[in-house]
UniProtKB/TrEMBL annotation:
GO terms for molecular function: DNA-binding transcription factor activity; sequence-specific DNA binding. It holds the Pfam family HTH_1. One of its GO terms (biological process) is DNA-templated transcription. Belongs to the LysR transcriptional regulatory family. Keywords: DNA-binding, Transcription, Transcription regulation. CDD domains: PBP2_LTTR_substrate. The keyword Transcription regulation applies. It comes from the Eukaryota. Residues 1-49 form the HTH lysR-type domain. Transmembrane segments: none annotated. This is HTH lysR-type domain-containing protein. The lineage of its organism: Eukaryota, Metazoa, Ecdysozoa, Arthropoda, Hexapoda.
Length: 230
């Protein structure tokens, strides 16, 4: 299924947490067991054959049914003392959700909340979380989704850096994994030839670098508006 979703051995290996040679061996073993060629081995991709597509479709149905069984088992075994697991990006978990857990606990004292601050997409069907807060809409049609708010961003810098002439300003940005995010696209429009001197994979590193005077960063207003050093 990972190979069908990603289209290459390397991408499937990253999803499964193993090396591409292991994925290749597993596919070869499955082909031998079925007596059917499942993939076309190209230099940069590994598309499925017609037979492979048919097998992948059947496997997807089996996976969906097994996940439905697991969901039913979890709900059937739930008790009034059951917990709820929430997954959210670290900034949202720390600044928005965690401060509200006390009020939730007063209203529902029998429910224990486990809050995970993580940026990776949690697999709700596999029981990794009950609720996931994300800045992108999930693609799985079986998930219940609801928009709960809007993230606002602005440009922030330490006072000494903000006082520099426009041409002398430097910028801080997320690394390439977030390049397509709207706030990073906006930053690219602001650069106008001025340099990005620092990249980070998380919001808090960008915030601390901006506080140090290294440069200006695009940050969520709910995080940076209350920072006296920006």
């Amino acid at each position: 299924m990972a190979l069908a979703r990603t289209g290459s051995l390397s991408a499937a290996a990253r999803e499964l947490g193993c090396d591409h040679a292991t994925v290749g061996r597993r596919v070869a073993a499955l082909e031998q067991a079925l007596g059917l060629r499942l993939i076309v081995r190209l230099p940069r991709s590994t598309p499925l054959t017609q037979g492979g597509q048919a097998i992948a479709g059947l496997a997807a149905e089996i996976e969906e049914q097994s996940q439905a069984i697991a969901r039913h088992a979890r709900s059937a075994g739930a008790t009034p003392q059951a917990g709820v697991r929430i997954s959210a990006p670290p900034s949202i978990a720390a600044h928005i959700l965690a401060p509200r857990i006390a009020a939730f606990n007063q209203a529902f004292p029998q429910i224990v909340v486990t809050l995970s601050g993580e940026s990776a997409l949690a697999e709700l069907d596999r029981g990794e979380a009950d609720i996931a807060v994300r800045m992108v809409r999930p693609q799985q049609p079986e998930l219940l989704t609801q928009r709960i708010g809007m993230m606002r961003y602005a440009l922030y810098a330490a006072p000494e850096h903000a006082a520099l002439p426009d041409a002398a300003r430097r910028f801080l940005a997320y690394d390439h994994h977030y390049r397509q995010q709207p706030h990073q696209q906006w930053l690219q429009q602001l650069l106008q030839g001025r340099p990005v001197v620092f990249h980070a994979s998380d919001l808090f590193s960008l915030q601390q670098a901006a506080r140090s005077g290294l440069g200006a960063a695009v940050l969520p207003t709910f995080v940076a508006d209350g920072d006296p050093d920006l």
